[in-house]
Structures are given as C-alpha cells and as structure tokens.
Amino acid sequence: MNLIWNADLVISGGGTMNREAAAMRVPVYSIFRGKIGAVDNYLVREGRLVLLEKVEDVRKKIDMVRRQRDTRHLASGASPALTEIVENIVSMVEYHRPAAAPEYSVQ
Predict the structure, then answer these.
(1) 3-state class of 28 per DSSP?
(2) Backbone angles phi, psi at 36, to 5 degrees
(3) 43-56 as b/e, with b when 16 or more CB fall inside 10 Å?
(4) E strand or H helix at 29, and its extent?
(5) Cα–Cα–Cα angle for 64, 39, 53, nearest 5°?
(6) Most exposed of 1, 11, 16, 84 (fewest Cβ within 10 Å)?
(7) Per-residue pLDDT tens over the stretch 2-46
(8) What is the rounded CA–CA span in Å between residue 107 and residue 103?
(9) Closest of 53, 65, 56, 46 to residue 29, by C-alpha
(10) How far, in Å, CA of 60 to CA of 20, rounded?
C-alpha cells in the first residue's frame, strides 16, 4: 500500500492492486483482458478505474501528471491508506444499502 500511495499512477493486470489504488484515489489503469467483475465495473462507472483495451489507449487515456496527495492526515497521525479504504467501504455499503436499512457509523 505504501508503494501505491506514493505512486503518481498505477498500471496493473487487475485485481487487488487496482482496487487498492482506486480506494486510495490513486489514478489506476487496468490491462486485464478477462471478464470484468462487479467491483471493477463499479469503479469504472465512478471514474476511478480506467480500462486500457488497446495499444492506443496508453497514449489516449493515461494522464502523465504528478499526483497531488492530500497531506492533511499527516498532522493527525492517521494512516492515509486505511482512512481512504474505510471511507470507500462505507461509501459502497451506503450506496448499496436498502432504503429502510439502518445507518452505519465508523469509529
């Protein structure tokens, strides 16, 4: 996670590394060529995962810019990766929660 957090972008074959990068709001590009799962489809719809489907996509879709990291957490000592992951899990749970379900809180 430390490697991902300090990267400007991630290009991976898919799976956990892509999802961790997306959870930490690191730009992530997937070269995976198999069937795309529900979580990855969700991340694509949210604009947090970009699928590279052909060679031209490397030039067209990848933004080669230095990523600005949110460093507000450094003063509090909170882990940026853990904080981001927890916030994203809560967001996904709330997105898929039935209307009558109780609210969740993170302590």
Answers:
(1) strand
(2) -85, 125
(3) beeeebbbbbeeee
(4) strand 28-30
(5) 45
(6) 16
(7) 788 888 999 999 788 999 999 888 999 999 988 988 999 999 999
(8) 13
(9) 53
(10) 24
